[in-house]
Amino acid sequence: MKIAVEGCAHGELDKIYECIETLQDREGIQVDLLICCGDFQSVRNNDDLRAMAVPEKYLNICTFYKYYSGEKVAPVLTIFIGGNHEASNYLQELPYGGWVAPKIYYMGRAGVIQFGNLRIGGLSGIFKGRDYLQGLWECPPYTPNSLRSVYHIRSLDVFRLSQLKDKVHVMLSHDWPRGITDYGNKEQLLKRKPFLRDEIEANQLGSPPAEKLLKTLKPDYWFAAHMHCQFAALVKHDNNEETKFLALDKCLPKRRHLQILDLPEEYDGDKLLKHDAEWLAVLKSTNHLLSVKNVDCYLPGPGGNERYDFTPTKEETSYIENLMDHLVIREDQFVQTAPVYKPGAPRGRLGEPIQNPQTARLCEILGIDDPLQVVMARSGKELRQHCEMKNETPERTPIKCSKLSLPAPVTPSEPDSHIESQGTPTTPYNSVDSILDTSDCSEPSTTKKTFKRRNLALYTPDNDDVDKSTSIEDSPRSSKVTCIS
After folding, report:
1. Burial of residue 265, with CB atoms counted within 10 A of its CB: 0-12 exposed, 13-18 middle, 19 or more buried
2. For residue 335, which phi and psi values (nearest 5 degrees)?
3. Residue 224, in any domain of the structure
């Protein structure tokens, strides 16, 4: 099995696939899988650019939209995790993973999947201590604060990954595990990135949660990106196991942004993308720990009176396998949930989030909650249902009219008080578009969807306000193609 690993993609799919095809022709090999370590930028249209926390000069449509629209099809199966330069509104539709385009799969906020007999884990986003313990409270349209905090990793994601017992062969993160520079050529790194010295000497470079997972999971390989440079390390664990760590650069000419990994045939298997039963069992058993409050939320641990070890038993894993019927992730589950890109179209606005059918299906089968649906329910709203995209415009359900016999009108004694006013959304790009758009209004349904509430405390509005200072995240810096067998 041959795997291509890409550092920061930054939406340059055309260039990445061209590199792979060049390597295949030059080396006489066939790549089975492409892994991207974040900053994927799955931007479908100009509206999605509103959901990216990057300087204005980096707000480019790039080339992902061609694969989303069907103009092109990925030449190799592609999986990726999220970074800090993403169309967060699209990725929030798929918190547990899903297809963002044909043959291009997002691993979710955190997740484990299998490709053949190879087990791959991933952690999306970057670490920021001020947001780590909070719930998943962000929701489009974003404020300047939530535009950044939405891609900050949370303790629940790390807690779930730490419950895994079966071997994880490959682990992905966007930022580096903290302390990883102690296991590689630190001085060579500092020659290329001298500004990192203070952080390295203070042991502040990298993610503490990723460091914890590195020591807990002990994967064979760990791939990362974010710092826009290549760095290799070898971590030896107490039980004589070792992890080969490799960070890769950004997709640019003459930069080391792509690596070919040659794995033994024992990992080949059927070379199909599949759900991981152990991971799904963890999702199901920890669903009650989901919080959407913008306050610190603490997870169970030793000494309490509730379960804190959620490593699945054989019975729990077998139950998931029977529940899912089959674990293969079918490619035909992909659906377009937003219009495709139109060249020259002006940048619009971010509307209310939509329910992705892939997420709805998985949540229904497992009996777990979609975080976005919970956020909306907490504010008294419902997640918009998906409608099939045709001619780049959502198809509206026709309203059937008939003659009605109505009672005589009654003059109300006081004005309606149930209508809430909504103001103009705050965006980082000085948007003055109103959040209300009468063209999007539809006839109310005669049947109201009931939202299943498993933990009422999570949905009780408490008027928590977030007072966070914004910071400029690492802006894109820059990636030579190497091939190792």
Report:
1. exposed
2. -140, 145
3. yes
Mean pLDDT split into 10-residue runs, the chain, 485 residues? 98 98 96 98 95 93 97 98 98 98 98 98 98 97 96 98 98 98 97 96 97 98 98 95 97 95 96 98 98 96 94 97 94 96 83 92 98 93 75 37 37 34 31 28 38 38 36 37 40
Give how many domains the chain has, as a whole number: 1
* Residue 217 resides in a domain: yes
Angle ∠(66,68,73) on CA atoms, nearest 5 = 65
Is 275 inside any structural domain? yes
Domain of 242, CATH number, reads 3.60.21
Length of the chain in terms of residues written: 485
List the domain range (segments joined by +) for residue 289.
Answer: 2-324
- Least Cα distance to 454 among 322, 381, 366 occurs for 366
Cα of first residue to Cα of last residue in the chain, in angstroms, is 11
Contact 142, 468 (CB under 8 A): no
The CA distance from 288 to 305, in Å, is 15
194 inside domain: yes
Residues forming beta bridges with residue 113, ordered by sequence position: 120, 275
